[in-house]
Design goal:
alpha+beta; Ribosomal Protein S5, domain 2; Rossmann fold; 4 domains; nine-stranded mixed β-sheet; 22 strands; 38% helix
């Protein structure tokens, strides 16, 4: 049968943009293309190994020894990478080489166009390593045949990276994939055998598949193959025999990250369960950390056989930043994602791995403040989710939390709850906090005036998850948390002042408060005198059992119905403006002042008013009176 006529296809628009970035030197480190192609070849071989175990009758030629082979042809200026892995069908070739199926592609492209300094990191983390071939190649040909294909037909995919590619069916004897790179005249260093050996040694020494390079003896006209990597899975080695650099390169290999990890943990467990884990915590978050369909999870092996990527069943969602592998000796080789979810071994491994990661982080927080602060600045927001998600480990997670506060006097979250308790006043019963839309909004809230005056520290919470988080953090080491924007008796005891003035003055004040209650009516839950305020005339609070203002904002933003909040209005009788208003006899003028102050307090609390024009008009009238 003759080869089929070539069919031309146009790249998906996102691929075109990526190719443009690649060809215009997106990678500052061009040699990474070889790591990416070897990584793809290794994955293909591991997928075939798994298929042989799980569906042995569907495959042919199963006796071949796994191998990745590199050939250099200086005359034709080509570099070829061959693997005898699972190969690709016609449709898979189109899907894998012509499109990007990963979710969030458009947002990713937008982000790399906005972050010139981080393009190399972002493109690697996105996992589009095949396209990096076009950095050094003017043309790429891919010969591939799926291991299920029983005929002598395979696929030839070719492109010059200029917006389109061709595919045709051709005769191929062996299954697997061969990628042929036609090297640009400016990149001939990649046709040097010594250079290729160094790159493989640097990036792919630790993969379990042998990587061989072709050697040709000119004198005897003999071809031989030289293994150029160790070809032993790094996690199967003794920790004493693994260098720091090897751990770092393996991390880069499995994550496509260009930066070294922040820290890692290599652990072998024997006993009721036998497994090995190699877990990494990155320095930087992936571009799609907050994307709803973000791919995360561990690379799963069973008895050293690759099973799947992104096995989310072994870690809770709030630890989705953790990368690495787990190699179980107890799970069945034919395990599926669905069976994993309800498997008792999986659940036990999940508990063990979660505890281990939290212990590692706790040790880091106690031994290296600088390194832990880097972790918290990057992943603290994600870790906070754990308080709701993981009640079993809530205590450990609480120890890892970091905050900013009145006393820290900076926006960076550096204060631990342990330190807060150590420094709190002896007579202080609770841990005080305030939630707001921003750090500056929290810092300048009138609720904090008495705390500043009394040197009582308050946690300033302005992350989007904070209000929600505090619902799952009722106390820490026996001390309850208390929002300063809610009514609280313990605070009243802490700031209580000596009685000032006569009974007659108190009587006048009570009459004034009653006037305010009559003016505002059922729009407020209560009106009362406060000692919390120093420089502000009035403020509003929510009652201890009512929904907070910040929670109401979250409900509203999510499109959820928000119950009406009736505030407590607190009056600072010592403020000059209040002293002036108290002397007003005209009920209409007094009402205008009270309405204005009430709206002022609402505006300070919520950041918005239902009718700001009325508020402005009222102020203008008062200016003219």
């Amino acid at each position: 049968m003759n080869n089929e006529i070539k069919k031309k296809y146009t790249f998906q628009s996102e691929v075109k943009q990526l190719l443009h970035l690649m060809i215009h030197s997106l990678y500052s480190n061009k040699e990474i293309f070889l790591r990416e192609l070897i990584s793809n070849a290794s994955d293909a071989i591991e997928k075939l190994r798994f298929q042989i175990i799980s569906h042995p009758k569907q495959l042919i030629n199963q006796e071949s020894i796994s191998k990745i082979q590199i050939t250099i042809n200086k005359n034709e200026k080509t570099l070829s990478i061959y693997d005898n892995g699972i190969g690709m069908t016609y449709n898979e070739t189109i899907n894998n080489l012509g499109t990007i199926a990963q979710s969030g592609t458009k947002s990713f492209l937008k982000k790399i166009n906005q972050n010139n300094k981080e393009k190399n990191d972002l493109i690697g983390k996105f996992g589009v390593g095949f396209y990096s071939s076009f950095i050094i190649a003017k043309k790429v040909s891919v010969y591939t045949k799926h291991a299920q294909e029983s005929s002598d037909l395979g696929i030839l995919w070719e492109s010059e990276g200029k917006g389109d590619y061709t595919i045709q069916k051709i005769k191929l004897k062996e299954y697997g994939t061969k990628v042929v790179l036609y090297i640009k005249d400016t990149e001939e260093e990649f046709l040097e055998s010594w250079n290729i050996k160094n790159i493989v040694k640097k990036y792919s020494d630790h993969i379990s598949i042998p990587v061989e390079i072709e050697n040709y003896d000119e004198k005897n006209k003999v071809i031989s193959w030289e293994k150029i990597n160790q070809a032993q899975a790094i996690w199967t080695k003794n920790k004493k025999d693994i260098s720091k650099k090897s751990y770092q390169e393996f991390y880069k290999y499995i994550t496509h990250d260009t930066k070294n990890p922040l820290l890692w943990s290599h652990n072998k467990v024997e006993g009721n369960q036998e497994y090995t884990s190699l877990l990494y915590i990155p320095k930087k978050a992936t571009w799609d950390m907050w994307h709803r369909e973000n791919k995360h999870g561990l690379k799963l092996y069973v008895k050293h056989v690759y099973i799947m990527d992104d096995a989310v069943q072994f870690l809770p969602n709030y630890l989705r930043f953790v990368k690495g592998i787990i190699d179980s000796q107890d799970l069945p080789l034919n395990i599926s994602r669905e069976i994993l979810q309800d498997n008792k071994i999986t659940q036990s491994l999940r508990k063990s791995l979660t505890r281990r990661i939290l212990t590692i982080l706790n040790n880091l927080s106690e031994t290296d403040d600088i390194k832990y602060q880097k972790f918290w600045n990057t992943f603290g927001l994600v870790l906070k989710e754990g308080l709701a998600e993981d009640s079993i480990n809530q205590k450990q997670i609480s120890n890892l939390l970091r905050f900013t506060s009145l006393r820290t006097k900076k926006q960076e979250q550096t204060l631990s709850l342990k330190k807060y308790l150590k420094d709190m006043l002896k007579e202080q019963e609770k841990i005080y906090f305030i939630t707001a839309d921003s750090y500056n909004s929290a810092l300048n809230s009138p609720h904090l005036e008495i705390f500043q005056n009394k040197n009582i520290d308050v946690l300033l919470l302005s992350d989007r998850v904070d209000e929600w988080m505090m619902n799952y953090l009722p106390e820490y080491q026996g001390k309850k948390f208390q929002s300063v924007s809610k009514s609280d008796l313990s605070l009243e005891k802490l700031i209580k002042k000596e009685k000032i003035g006569t009974d007659k003055n108190e009587q006048k004040s009570n009459i004034f408060i009653e006037k305010i209650k009559n003016i505002l009516g059922n729009r407020v839950k209560d009106v009362r005198v406060t000692h919390r305020l120093i420089n502000t005339p009035v403020m509003v609070l929510t009652d201890s059992n009512d929904m907070s203002t910040q929670m109401a904002k979250l409900f509203s933003a999510a499109g959820q119905p928000v119950p009406e909040i009736k505030y407590l209005l607190e009056i600072n009788l010592t403020h000059p403006l209040i002293e002036k208003i108290k002397k007003i006899d005209n009920i209409e003028t007094l009402s205008m002042w009270i309405e204005m102050l009430f709206e002022q307090a609402i505006f300070a609390e919520k950041g918005t008013l239902e009718n700001p024009h009325t508020f402005i008009n009222r102020i203008n009238k008062l200016f003219l009176s």
